[in-house]
Amino acid sequence: MIEKSVCKETENNAIFNTLQNNTATLHNQLWLPNGSGAAIWSNENGQANYCKPDHHTLSFYLDGGEKTHRLYNRAKPLYGAPNKLCLMPAEHQSQWRFSSRFKFLHLYFGHNHLQSTFEKAFDKEGRNIELMDQTFVDDSYLSNIFHHTLLPLNWHDRSDTLAFTHIQQIVYVHLLKNHCNVQFNMPNITGGLSPIVAKRINEYIHDHLASKITIEQLANIAELSEFHFSRMFHQSFGSPPHQYVLKLRTQLAAMLLKTTQHPLADIAIQCGFSSQPHFTLHFKTFFSITPAKYRQLQR
Known about the structure:
The protein is globular and about 70 Å long. The model is unreliable at 1-6 and 8-13 (pLDDT under 50). Helix 4 packs antiparallel against helix 8 (241-259). The strands form 2 sheets. The chain has a 6-stranded antiparallel β-sheet with strand order 1-2-8-4-6-9. It has a 3-stranded antiparallel β-sheet with strand order 3-7-5. The protein folds into 3 domains: 4-178, Sandwich (Jelly Rolls); 195-238; 244-298, Arc Repressor Mutant, subunit A (Orthogonal Bundle), CATH 1.10.10.60. Strand 1 and strand 2 (37-43) form a beta hairpin. Helices cover 43% and strands 18% of the residues. By secondary structure, it is α+β, with helices and mostly antiparallel strands. InterPro entries: AraC_XylS_family_regulators, Homeodomain-like_sf, HTH_AraC, Tscrpt_reg_AraC-type_HTH. Residues 199-297 form the HTH araC/xylS-type domain. Pfam families: HTH_18. Keywords: DNA-binding, Transcription, Transcription regulation. GO terms for molecular function: DNA-binding transcription factor activity; sequence-specific DNA binding.
């Protein structure tokens, strides 16, 4: 039986803060200006109580969880496992107990983020959408996105923030289509950006390669929603915005390596990479060779 007295109103019911004040260990975190964010945690031997947070939380188990369960008024408890998904809507209440170490990813986002995505992506009013409260479900689509796209990002590098915001939009749309209480059809989006808009976007990207570039900035220039912009950009340029920006940054770096004697760390900053190691990682991905070796071969 769940004790009703466990849930007490506090000044801040955010799940992130609850875990910080619990036995959990924070391994990584990323927060965006709009208030959404992500964190990777581990925990063991204890319990956590969530009482009416003001935001939605997606929880994805990365490792362990077989001895983690949510307290329900049911005879047989339901336990977690790697790749299991939990959705905890705003204003929900839940209690969790765990007796062995497990590691998990959290995505935090407000209902306004989900509603805005719904209205922009599907051209419908989104006041009445509701995120389902789900515990330990399977979702192979999100599992692939998290393991192969989100987790490999360097969360502390500004150039990967663009990729993170793009992944967010993909996740939101998937949640709306598969884990909310609404039924709808995707709008048909044909064609890419107009030649004038594409030229304007391309010029902006080239002029700001050394700076942080976000989907929101580019979508505003195109006067489109972030969701529609990302789809139309892909059709016009042949790749998602973050991949296109990354390609241009590595091409600029290659030119600087060939024509200047600037230190690698300086070139990394000039091309929008936050550090030399991150620059080296992406340069090697595109050219199959390190920047230092590339420069050596140009002599």
